[in-house]
Amino acid sequence: MISDLPAQGARALILVYRLTFSAFAGQWCRHAPSCSQFADEAIQRHGLWAGGWMTLGRICRCRPGGTDGFDPPPKALPAGADPLKPWRYAKWRGPLVCEAVEKPQ
C-alpha cells in the first residue's frame, strides 16, 4: 500500500546500514537484538512513527552507563502512547536504573 511506503523506505535504509557500515564497523551492540534489528522489527510491527520513537528511546539507552541485555521491541503499543505524545512510545530508561538504598541505622 502507499501508506506503507515511508516505513518500507526506512526499513530499506536500515538494511543498507546493516550491509555497509555495520558490516565494516563490527557488531558492538550491548543489547540483543542489536539496535538496527530492534529498529527494523519495531517499524515493521508498529509503523514508522511509533517504531521510530521506540528506536530513538533504544538508542538513548544504548550509551555509556546505559542498559544492556535482552531488550526486544514491545509486541503491543505502551499504555498512554499517542501520536500527539510520541515520547510515550519509547522506553527511555532501562531496568538497570539505580535506586536509592536505605542505610542501616
UniProtKB/TrEMBL annotation:
Keywords: Cell membrane, Membrane
Membrane topology field: Peripheral membrane protein
UniProt family annotation: Belongs to the UPF0161 family.
Role played: Could be involved in insertion of integral membrane proteins into the membrane.
Main subcellular localisation: membrane
HAMAP family attached to this UniProt entry: UPF0161_YidD
Protein name, entry field: Putative membrane protein insertion efficiency factor
UniProt GO cellular component terms: plasma membrane
Subcellular location: Cell membrane
